[in-house]
């Protein structure tokens, strides 16, 4: 039977890797329902034509005319603006890949969840900023949430979810990013280009910076806590530079189950797209005779305070993870624009958490999307104040 697929964030790294797997499948395996992007009308139109999409949505209206011109004469419906993303997510699909970057993905992903079908979750930020209501929406609709983040996908694969009492801890692995071996002094002068140059994974710009600060691992810690219903104390982070083991679950009998593979996002994407069946992914196979060593060590929280801040936000609960995420998005954007230095990113996040925490005490567990959006907006304003005064 043909699987109807929607991709939210189709022009990004995860979106295009998903399309790559679809392209290689036998004709008739998939029908692309809807594709979305923010500004990149050219790539969106090209993908829509290549995959014969039924509907395309572009969030940023300033590129609407370009998209309309590119798709003129084609039988592809076009939607413009943030509501069009939600419309895309509401179109009947068997599988939706949620791969918009940042909190902007929250409402479209919730709309996809409300359909009650399969949702591949790459967009970790929406779970970080709205963990409890997001998981409540999943339970309510009966949607099957399939983690795409490689670590969470690994845990999903090895977690005996019918044995929750048998689990002792989740162990998230981290590559350590491009600055793993740099000193704190070196980090004062690293550039945007250095930070974008990840040694193992090929990813979009924002997540590459998050990997360099280790905020990515912090966001993943929060994501894992909500996805697998585990407190902070039962989730460890360990640096594993080879990125062969994608994460592990330790059980109370001392067994540790791990998922291994080449560092290529097409493996977890294929797992989510095909679930519950396994489907082929065009990734390099592991050759164990060529893997000379697998090393592990504890993350350095002095050099990489973002990971500490994320754990503190998770433990503070309420709206603290939402504030952390919003401040980080603003700080990363400012760093990518050349407005702040690398080490300023975590400083801004910490200062924002402090100021927002003083006024809110983080006691406000945001229950609905409107409350989350208000918290997110307030935290962004606070972060922006810190950015301009640096
Ligand atoms: P990219 O930056 O490569 O792509 C992001 C996608 O989202 C693009 O299609 C982009 O459109 C769209 N987009 C950006 N801003 C908005 C907005 N305001 N409104 C609507 N759409 C928007 O991101 P990645 O593919 O790297 O990451 C996507 C998600 O997956 C993130 O949450 C990331 O953390 C997660 N993830 C990514 C991994 C990776 O290997 N890349 C690994 C694990 C998780 P446009 O092209 O027009 O800007």
Kindly list the characteristics that best describe this protein:
alpha/beta, Rna Polymerase Sigma Factor, Chain: A, seven-stranded parallel sheet, 15% strand, binds NADPH dihydro-nicotinamide-adenine-dinucleotide phosphate
Describe what you observe in this structure:
- There is one protein chain.
- The protein has 390 residues and is α/β, with parallel strands linked by helices.
- It folds into three domains: 145 residues, NAD(P)-binding Rossmann-like Domain (Rossmann fold, 3-Layer(aba) Sandwich), CATH 3.40.50.720; 128 residues, no CATH class; 74 residues, RNA polymerase sigma factor, region 2, helix turn helix motif (Rna Polymerase Sigma Factor, Chain: A).
- It is 46% helix and 15% strand.
- The protein is built from 17 helices and eleven strands.
- β5, α5 and β6 form a beta-alpha-beta unit.
- The longest helix is centred in the last third of the chain and has 21 residues.
- It is globular, with a radius of gyration of 20 Å.
- It starts with a strand and ends with a helix.
- The model has no long low-confidence stretch (mean pLDDT 96).
- The site of NADPH dihydro-nicotinamide-adenine-dinucleotide phosphate has 29 residues, from α1, α6 and α11.
- NADPH dihydro-nicotinamide-adenine-dinucleotide phosphate (NDP) binds next to α1, α6 and α11.
């Amino acid at each position: 039977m043909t699987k109807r697929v929607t991709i939210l964030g189709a022009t990004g790294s995860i979106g295009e890797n998903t399309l790559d797997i679809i392209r290689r499948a036998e004709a008739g395996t998939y029908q692309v329902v809807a594709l979305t992007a923010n500004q990149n009308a050219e790539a969106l139109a090209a993908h829509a034509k290549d995959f014969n999409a039924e509907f395309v949505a572009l969030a940023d209206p300033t590129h609407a005319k370009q998209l309309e011109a590119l798709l003129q004469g084609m039988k592809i419906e076009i939607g413009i603006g943030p509501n069009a993303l939600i419309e895309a997510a509401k179109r009947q699909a068997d599988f939706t890949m949620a791969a918009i970057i940042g909190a902007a993905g929250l409402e479209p992903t919730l709309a996809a969840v409300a359909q009650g079908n399969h949702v591949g979750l790459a967009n970790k930020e929406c779970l970080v900023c709205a963990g409890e209501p997001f998981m409540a929406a999943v339970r309510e609709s009966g949607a099957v949430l399939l983690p795409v983040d490689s670590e969470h996908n690994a845990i999903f694969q090895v977690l005996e979810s019918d044995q929750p009492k048998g689990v002792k801890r989740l162990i998230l692995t981290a590559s350590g990013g491009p600055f793993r071996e740099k000193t704190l002094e070196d980090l004062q002068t690293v550039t945007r280009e250095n930070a974008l140059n990840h040694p193992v994974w090929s990813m979009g710009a924002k997540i590459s910076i998050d990997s360099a600060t280790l905020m990515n691992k912090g966001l993943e810690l929060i994501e894992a806590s909500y996805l697998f219903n585990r407190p902070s104390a039962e989730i460890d982070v360990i640096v594993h530079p080879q990125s062969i083991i994608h994460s592990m679950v330790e059980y109370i009998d001392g067994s540790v189950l791990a998922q291994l593979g080449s560092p290529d996002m097409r493996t977890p994407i294929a797992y989510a797209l095909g679930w519950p069946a396994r489907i082929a992914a065009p990734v390099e196979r592991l050759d164990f005779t060529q893997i000379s060593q697998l090393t592990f060590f504890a993350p350095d929280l002095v050099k990489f305070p973002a990971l500490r801040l994320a754990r503190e936000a998770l433990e503070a609960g309420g709206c603290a993870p939402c504030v952390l995420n919003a401040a980080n998005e603003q700080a990363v954007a400012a760093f990518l624009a050349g407005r702040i230095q690398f080490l300023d990113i975590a400083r801004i996040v910490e200062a924002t958490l402090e100021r927002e925490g003083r006024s809110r005490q983080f006691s406000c567990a945001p229950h609905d999307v409107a409350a989350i959006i208000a918290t997110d907006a307030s935290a962004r304003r606070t972060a922006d104040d810190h950015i301009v005064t640096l």
